[in-house]
Design a protein that fits this description.
Number of helices: 13
CATH architecture of the largest domain: Orthogonal Bundle
Largest sheet: 3 strands, antiparallel
Order of helices and strands: HHHHHHHHEEEHEEHHHH
CATH superfamily of the largest domain: Intergrase catalytic core
Shape: globular
Strand content: 5-15%
Strand order of the largest sheet: 1-2-3
Number of strands: 5
Structural class: mainly alpha
CATH class of the largest domain: Mainly Alpha
CATH topology of the largest domain: hpI Integrase, Chain A
Radius of gyration: 24 Å
Helix content: 40-55%
Length: 350
Amino acid sequence: MLTSEFSAVDGPLAWSDDPEERLRQIAELDAAAAEHVHRGKPANTRRAYADDYRVWVLFTKTLGLPAQTCTAGLLVMFTLWLDRGHQALDEAGRLDRARSVTASAPSTIRRRLYGAVAELRYRGVDVPAHATALAFENIKAIERRLAEDGEQRGRGKAEALTITAIRAICAGFPDTLTGLRDRALLLIGFGIAGRRAELAALTVTDIDDDPHGLVVTVRVSKTKTRTVPIPYGAHRETCPVRAWQAWKAAAGLVDGHAFRSIDRWGNLGAGMSGKYVGEAVTAAGRRAGITIHYTGHSVRAGFATEARRASHDVAAIAAQGGWEPTSRVLFGYIRIVDQWTDNALIGIGL
């Protein structure tokens, strides 16, 4: 081995004088580099890619092909296979969920394709860019067909959590340890425009006190680490800073996970999972009697739309939530607000 740990390379490598051996060393280095980059991805991303690859393996198996066979035609077929879905039965004639695939929404098909391709490339398969481009174009065709047919799959985009909804939800939190935790979870999540996994991974030492409020370091992220300032809120009941301080004091937090499970007797448990974070947001909305189905991602979408509604510029919003300023996702949130304030019909005399 050239090196047992790619990141440990800090000087000239001991290249062989033999041409064939040098080619082998280069191939080894390429494999080590791929492994190093793969390990650097967030754990939830690696799990998602692995799940997408599992679905790809199931698809190729139905065709009698090795999993690492990949062509433009197969990638397009993969999107069609996910679009149509199929049910598999076991020997007793019962539904075999492990081998069944539901008719997927375009967003799910797009994610499955992206993850499968990423995992194939990680495993050394040469996936040409033109092949993936053709498959993504087919997903657009699927979207057009579903729109023309009036067919809705999945829940669609997460509903943005509004300030009005936050006030209603906060008014409904019980005066218990769980209520204090969920209030802090919701408001800190809104303050950092946090993804579920980001909130689940926060530790007590990631949240520092500051005379102006809090400084939160988001270390585990889908993109990159960011430091987010959260100022005191104008209203005590919806102030993220006061909510965090109240939860931290009541739970006696010193280190470890910032947000933890709580059993029926009020005892703290392990850190909350990303799924549990999303469920807590959904349950809070229901408890407040809100008919809109909020999810963990509603917090992130809500921050972007409410910040734009308050006239903050794209760069400031992007920095708080860890988006690239040119992000298409962020632009989608911004457009929800701007379509009524920067509308080409306004002022033309209709």
